[in-house]
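FW: tagging you since you asked about this chain on Friday. Here's the raw sequence from the shared folder, copied in full. Didn't touch anything.
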Amino acid sequence: MPNRITELFNIKYPIIQAGMVWNSGWRLASAASNAGVLGLLGAGSMYPEVLREHIQKCKKVTDKPFGVNVPMLYPNIQEIMDIIVEEDVKIVFTSAGNPKIWTKWLQEKGITVVHVVSSVKFALKAQEAGVDGVVAEGFEAGGHNGRDETTTLTLIPMVKEHIHIPLIAAGGIATGKAMLATMILGADGVQVGSRFVASEESSAHQAFKQVVVDAKEGDTQLTLKELAPVRLIKNKFYNDIQELYKTAPSPEQLKELLGRARAKLGMFEGDLDEGELEIGQISGLIHDIKPTAVIVDDMMREFEEAKHIAKSL
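HL: got it, structure written out here
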């Protein structure tokens, strides 16, 4: 199904497997790319040399395009970018920072750059910075999120109205029906995170994957807006945050409670009580753990079926 996204990345289907911290290692990225979508490594949870290792392992098991997602607020950013160039990765998704800082530098080295945004304002800034495309992510999404709480259903048509570069929808997308809906609203493709967390190839801990599968409506909540808004599954750590909020805490007190490596503790090491369990609202529609290739096949089959139904309405 050729369109602007498949042509931009040289992939079969206009789907991007999100580069999520502690979930998106080389096994998931390569499996996604081999299934005909764009696999992304999540550099946010990798030291520079660990990222290099994942890139090299990914190259050994796929000859298809893959990329790296780089949250720009993390340390060692120059070293990470240098490794991406040295390892000849041709696609970079940037987030959590100013796209002007790295876009031209990367493009001069032959790299396609996409920036993740949560509002029309930031989409326009990304376009002005010269990015090749944007991911517009609604607040249904898991992990770190926009402060404005704009839903994907609202965000996509508003962003589409203001930009001319390729647009990728994210947030609350785990099915072919949702993919079709966002593309009807103006997206050229979709980025999928939570559904790929519950894949066999995801690097997430099995216990975390099971929590995602078991999640129901209302089991996630956006919190910690004073620091960096993040959508979490409600667990002991989440409840501790809510108890602290009753005391009108300062940002410093919230940081003290958060501590270090909470996301690794929860998603990668499987501590379901004290860990930070980042996942999207769509987890309520995820009921099983499947191979990545099956997830892609299911999405595309449902997408085509939904298109057929839509034509008959």
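FW: The chain has a mean pLDDT of 96.
HL: agreed, and Residues 292-311 form the longest helix (20 residues).
FW: great, closing this out.
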